[in-house]
Amino acid sequence: MRKGRALSLIALPIAASLVLTACGGGGGSQSGGNENTEVSIFGTEPENPLVPGNTTETGGGKVVQAIFTGLVKYSNSFEVKNAMAESIELTKPDQYTIKLKQGWKFHDGTDVKAKNFVDAWNYTAYSPNGQQSASFFEQIKGFRDVNTVDPDGANGPQKAPEPKAKEMSGLKAVDDYTLQVDFTEPHVIFKVKLGYSAYMPLPDAFFKDPKGFEAKPIGNGPFKFISRTPKQDIKLERYEEYKGDDKPKIKKVKVAIYTGTEAAYAAVKGNQLDFLDTIPPSGLAGNLWKTDLKGRSQAFQGLSIQILNFPLYDKKYQNADFRKAISMAINRKEITEKIFEGSRKPTDGYAVDGVTGWSPGGCGELCTHNPTEAKKLFDKSGFTGKLEITSNADGGHKEWIEAACGQIKNALNLECTFAPVATFGEIRKKINAHEMTQVYRGGWLADYPSVENFLNPLYRTGGSSNDGGYSSPAVDAKLAEADRAGTEAESYKLYHEAEKLIANDMPAIPLWSTPSQAGWSNRLKNATMSAYRELDLSTVEVA
Fold this sequence. Notes:
Layout: E1 38-43, H1 58-67, E2 72-74, E3 80-82, E4 85-92, E5 95-100, H2 114-125, H3 143-146, E6 171-175, E7 178-182, H4 190-193, H5 204-208, H6 210-215, E8 223-229, E9 233-238, E10 252-257, H7 261-269, E11 275-276, H8 281-284, H9 288-292, E12 297-300, E13 304-309, H10 320-329, H11 332-338, E14 345-346, H12 371-381, E15 387-390, H13 398-412, E16 416-418, H14 424-432, E17 439-445, H15 456-459, H16 473-483, H17 488-505, E18 508-513, E19 516-520, E20 524-525, E21 541-542
Parallel strand pairs: 1-10, 15-16, 15-17
Antiparallel strand pairs: 2-3, 4-5, 5-7, 6-7, 8-9, 9-10, 11-19, 12-19, 13-17, 13-18, 14-18, 20-21
Helix pairs in contact: 10-12, 16-17
């Protein structure tokens, strides 16, 4: 789930961070050169209308990243570079001053100014607007005045208190092209976050007619929105006035919505679909994809992790010994080698190897296969009944979940079954409503390249993608300490300490990192993956 951009995970969040979506019907491409050709890419049905602050999963995130550009962007090697920002300076320990590049336009021809960022961030943070990315502004002064805590609890939904204000006091446009951000405490990693969709600007047209914007989003990115046919496709076209240095060579993009990765895989093999970012299990078996798509496929490093989530609001999952027992009963190495042909790497923590600020050993022995210790913990937990693990049936997760269930049954003498749900949308609806009664497959695709993004959104109380309802005062305090650290090195040390505290509670089970195996049609050249595990639309060409 991504948020983040969930695999919201990626909830694969980007938030982030985005949720990894299940894979969704049709495809096809047209012939011609770069200027006239429509390149078709695999997509999934977005969960919500394409408003950046409310897009926390990969289906919508893929489109939002194409039609919006933020203050910074991330290279394919996860380097942070200025995009709309001319400069981002830490003018005080608790203040950033951001200068914007001039001459940038929204797709409706209006100028992109500092107030467009201020208005967008305030709208997203204001809790009555119900935006999923509101928590990304938590460190800014005045956030608690615009965002009240949802009081839902054991007695069901409660009406949230009315916020004291509609605008954060720590956010202001100094002039047309200068943005000042004041924090309640130092927040040195803020710059790294600014390429995520939560921080995109919104044009004045959004506030004049939100419904009209939802029907036809207006961005400031390299592609402009043309049309959307639900469950079929989303069409984009290059914005000729785009000022970024990543202007695409191709003219048109069709995000083809599929009902499953198997159909998309067949379409890529037959050159009816131009790009697929998720090879299904049938293609991974025996590394068949390397033969089927010889010369037009590759594995790419990603910022995504596969996890199993517990709905902690359900009493039967509230014993930490039970959750630890399930983790230690799973043989990650065996599954990654036999099901995924070695294309996945078992993780020993809640972030992926190589991300900025990462340290090994965050989960330690609790993420190590140890059936003897697992059985002791299971017996101690007193759990009774059977275990069901659910996921969307259209996402290619059946094989590994059934393998994990077999290991759990052998280690714990616990009946464990795979209980699929038809679509990703159905599962997300239940997750968002806190109606899950089963352990469920989750994924996380990082919204930005920092270890912080693997922790705060998912495991801090009230985090934007904390879908299981986990809450720990000790974890919250340690994460807050890391957030306000005076240097990046100090903050990363503290995030690692928070990771160990999270592991001791085991609110979710980290399994393995999920690099991307991608395939493309014989029409494409210079096909590579962006930091968000998607086709890099700035470099791809038609042969």
